[in-house]
Specification:
Distance between the termini: 16 Å
Largest sheet: none
Number of strands: 0
Order of helices and strands: HHHHHH
Strand content: under 5%
Number of helices: 6
Shape: elongated
Number of domains: 1
Structural class: mainly alpha
Radius of gyration: 18 Å
Length: 163
């Protein structure tokens, strides 16, 4: 029975990582799944505060993911409005992308939406094309770093559980 649950946890982790990359709450899906497995099976007794600690860490990662793109915009010399609009563009792009191409479109919409909105805003604020492109690339890089951090944490969390 332990092998079946271990395989299920690994599959849930893979699904969670995919969900993270298409801008859905994969970290919370993993956390709820592990909570259910812990509650309803005798697979492994987790420490009492472990799930609460992971919830706090995952919530912080959600905040960091969005703030990281805004920080990257400011780091490259972009305006506050571009930092805000990059977050808004990413959310709107992900929603539109999911309608066009359900799984890959969400991720592409996130990247393209944040890039285009940031680029357009910086161009309107008087930056030349090269500066606006550099700022727009920085916001995209911020999202990629945030998604990578969340994916890595999911992998570490699952390795802790199965080892």
């Amino acid at each position: 029975m332990d092998y079946v649950i271990t395989i299920a946890i690994v599959l849930i982790a893979i699904i969670s990582i995919i969900l993270v990359w298409i801008n859905l709450p994969g970290t919370f899906v993993l956390l709820v799944s592990i909570f259910c497995i812990d509650r309803f099976t005798d697979y492994q007794e987790l420490p009492e505060n472990f799930l609460i600690t992971m919830l706090i860490v995952f919530m912080l990662l959600e905040v960091i993911e969005f703030l990281l793109s805004a920080v990257m915009v400011k780091f490259q010399g972009g305006k506050n409005s571009s930092a805000f609009l990059s977050i808004l563009g990413a959310i709107i792009g992900a929603i539109i992308g999911s309608f066009i191409l359900p799984i890959i479109g969400t991720f592409l919409g996130l990247i393209i939406g944040s890039y285009l909105v940031t680029y357009y805003n910086e161009k309107n604020l008087g930056k030349n094309s090269q500066e606006a492109t550099q700022i727009a690339i920085s916001t995209t890089l911020g999202y990629l770093i945030g998604k990578s951090m969340k994916s890595l944490l999911i992998a570490i969390f699952v390795l802790y559980l199965i080892i």
